[in-house]
Amino acid sequence: MPTEDEISGTSKRRPKQSPTSIGNHKLKPATLMLGYGFDPALSEGSLKPPVFLTSTFVFDSAADGKRFFEGVTGKRPGGAEGLIYSRFNGPNQEILEDRLAVWESADDALAFSSGMSAIATLLLTFVQPGDVVVHSGPLYAATETLIAKILGRFGVSYLDFPSGASREEIDAVIAKAKEKGRVALIYLESPANPTNALVDVEAVAAARNAAFPEAQRPPIAIDNTFLGPLWAHPIQQGADISVYSLTKYAGGHSDLVAGGLVGRQGLIDQIRMMRNTIGTICDPNTAWMLLRSLETLELRMERAGENAAKVCAFLRNHPKVESVGYLGFLDEGSSQADIYRRHCLGAGSTFSLYLKGGEKEAFAFLDALKIAHLAVSLGGTETLASAPAAMTHLSVPDERKQALGITDNLVRISIGVEDPDDLIADFENALRSV
């Protein structure tokens, strides 16, 4: 009797499926990062996936080539059944995507050349001229620019609500958006960059579901970079797609730039079609580096989170500090504390430090740091500090920065994996310059 491979016209053995459980015991993501989605037998027995530096892949037969292209072009459901061309797929990218989906128990994932290419591809997939995007505020400055200025050139408008908005406030904004046009996407960022304000994803999902019939509901996408994938799983609260700058915690070593989307299969398939067309896929070497980094993701994030708790405890009562925007310090009984209790598994390692004073004091603090590096980005093994109002959010209009709490005295800090006592000594010394 012919085998399935013989029927399909290919002699290649299908990859051996990676175990996800042992008996009734379900394996944890940290364990699956060490081998899930990779079959050593298909790579000469290599323990780790090789880097597949090739632009194209050889078909066993013309029929295979046709069938693969039927999948990748959407003529046949299910996507490409095999490897075609590195703008579409590749072994490193596919293994990476399998492992990214594990953390949030998502249907599928996609890897991109940067966080912004992931966001741009997402928006281009769902937004058409005349549509309206509803989003929380603040967003990462480049995301706001893309929505307001770039898409605005093509007749797309937006309405936003504050990160900490109540269900009633969200309902009101969605109602106004519906009056302006077709609401194509609801885009969230939680915690917000750089204020650390949380969005009530459950309230947004409930508002969306109440405002639209099921067949017309716009997807809810959320930038989960600050807490994901260890400390927040927003798909469980009603989001459809989690957005990542994989440059940050997933990469974790400040040596790569990449982005990711994880979420519902039907939506991921639509985004994949757009990515195939415009070529925003992650390159194989970066995908390989991310596979390396995912193996220590939980260890790095746990250590950074522990360090941040100790550092913030020191900073909280310092006489030169106005306040610390750290999720572990939310006022009990506040709406933000309620969202944190329902949505978050940890306080993270990135926080907002508000110094007494303004830009002068913030710059003096930053210039006096010895261990922490004066650089943008977050989620690396090293501690980073920057002034958002003068750097990452410089392009945001002044009045909007003030409304969103992005003030001149704000320093954004991302704590790394150094010794916490050394970090406290560094911050204590830098505060003497303020």
| Percent helix range | 25-40%
Give the integer mean of the pLDDT values. 94
Question: Quick one: overall form?
Answer: globular
Report the sheet with the most strands, covering strand number, pairing sense and barrel closure: 7 strands, mixed
Distance N terminus to C terminus? 80 Å
- Total strand count, please? 14
Evaluate the radius of gyration: 23 Å
Please identify the structural class as seen in this structure: alpha/beta
N-to-C SSE string, H for helix and E for strand: HEEHHHEHEHEHEHEEEHHHEHEHEEHEH
Overall description:
The protein has 434 residues and is of the alpha/beta class. Helix content is 37%, strand content 15%. The strands form 3 sheets. It has a 7-stranded mixed sheet with strand order 3-9-8-7-6-4-5, with helices on both faces. It has a 5-stranded mixed sheet with strand order 10-11-14-13-12, with helices on one face. Helix 8 (201-211) links the parallel strand 6 (183-189) and strand 7. Helix 5 (115-126) packs across helix 9 (265-278), helix 7 (167-180) crosses helix 8 and helix 11 packs parallel to helix 15. Mean pLDDT is 94; it is low at 1-10.
